[in-house]
Design goal:
Blueprint: H1 4-10, H2 16-21, E1 23-28, E2 34-37, E3 48-51, E4 85-90, E5 93-100, H3 113-120, E6 124-127, H4 136-147, H5 155-159, H6 161-173, H7 186-200, H8 209-219, E7 224-226, H9 230-238, H10 242-255, H11 259-271, H12 275-282, H13 290-316, E8 321-326, H14 336-342, E9 346-349
Parallel strand pairs: 5-8, 6-7, 6-8
Antiparallel strand pairs: 1-2, 1-3, 4-5, 4-9
Helix pairs in contact: 4-9, 7-10, 10-13
């Protein structure tokens, strides 16, 4: 089963917005050297533009987004099914922890009333990164700085002829000229392709669970807190060893053909509150190599420890917080549920 799709859907909220919503300009200076940037080139005749949003993505009509005022018929749920959320309690310390899918679709809404009531009664929303309040131009600039070579290195040189050729076939099928990826580092090319695939199968970042609660928090003037910063998260990706980044890209190329079926399987586990089933998808055979293990450590295991510690600190200080993090962070022996239980919290699934 695919690995990179679930990594983006369940843990990597910070790369979504600037990738699917921005533009990249491929420019050349007077000596013919290529530079990728998030603003137009000085000379229009030397410019190529890549708009990172697929033309075949579903159109959004004003007023059709899922909100509490415009309920959408949900997929049928079992009467005894649980939500992908847990109540945390330790003495006077109370809070909630929910697993998010960062790209979503309309059938995921409306959310169960138990979740909405828990959110309504909370003091603050806590997310990995508040992409709603972040300046889009600043985020795009940070993404470009972290994800594009600045020393003249090309992705073609890094990948070699065979993998570059495979990338060309896939990117062209997704509507991205492979030349537009040439200046990107492997992790950035991987995330760009993955975001395009998810958009292409009808998923929308604006329908993601964390985005849904961010929008509600803004509407209700509820405080929003972050567990991480966008800059910090980008540093994790750009700091991955090159061989690990190449593994990411190779897996992305394998993911393309199974994206639709994979999302449906994952969504079924999420909607049923089946943390074990979802964790089995997340920790698959693709994690057995050293490079995949390093990717999992950086993107998941280490972050789980840090975020669980910060959540504990917030609750100790009296915040009745509603915490939303990628669902891939919750399950397993190294997941946040186990980590918070080890800190003395009683954990009750809603």
């Amino acid at each position: 089963m695919s690995r990179l799709l679930i990594l983006l859907l369940l843990t990597a909220s910070f790369v979504v917005t600037p990738i699917v919503a921005g533009e990249i300009f491929k420019c050349r200076d007077a000596m013919g050297r290529v530079a990728f940037q998030d603003h137009p080139c000085h000379r229009a005749d030397k410019e190529e533009r890549l708009i990172l949003a697929p033309s075949h993505a579903p159109a959004t009509t004003a007023g059709t987004e899922p909100t509490l005022a415009t309920p959408i018929k949900p997929e049928k749920r079992q009467a005894d099914s649980k939500s992908f959320a847990w109540r945390l309690s330790k003495g006077k310390q109370q809070g909630y922890l929910m697993g998010s899918i960062h790209f979503g679709k309309a059938s995921m809404y409306p959310l169960p009333l138990t979740l909405l009531n828990a959110f309504k009664g909370s003091d603050a929303l806590v997310v990995e990164a508040n992409v709603v309040d972040a300046d889009a131009s600043t985020m795009a600039h940070m993404m470009m700085s972290a994800g594009v070579y600045s020393d003249g290195t090309t992705l073609k040189e890094v990948l070699g002829a065979d993998l570059w050729g495979e990338l060309g076939v896939t990117s062209t099928a997704l509507g991205i000229p492979v030349s537009m990826l040439e200046g990107m580092k492997p992790w950035f090319a991987s995330m760009t392709l993955t975001a395009m695939v998810l958009k292409g199968i009808g998923l929308d970042e604006s329908l993601g669970i964390d985005r849904h609660f961010l929008d509600m928090a803004k509407a209700q003037h509820k405080p929003i807190r972050e567990l991480e910063s966008v800059q910090q998260q980008l540093t994790l990706l750009s700091g991955l060893p090159q061989k690990v980044q190449i593994v990411m890209l190779k897996q992305t190329l394998k993911d393309v053909a199974v994206a639709d079926a994979y999302f449906d399987t994952m969504l079924k586990a999420w909607q049923g509150g089946d943390v074990q089933a979802l964790n089995r998808l997340f920790v698959d055979e693709g994690l057995k190599s050293d490079e995949s293990g390093e990717l999992n450590r950086v993107m998941n295991t280490d972050r789980n420890i840090t975020m669980a510690k910060k959540i504990d600190e917030m609750l100790i200080k009296g915040c009745h917080c509603f915490v939303v993090v990628g669902a891939g962070h919750l399950g397993g022996e190294a997941g946040m549920i186990k980590l918070l239980q080890a800190k003395g919290y009683e954990v009750e699934q809603l």
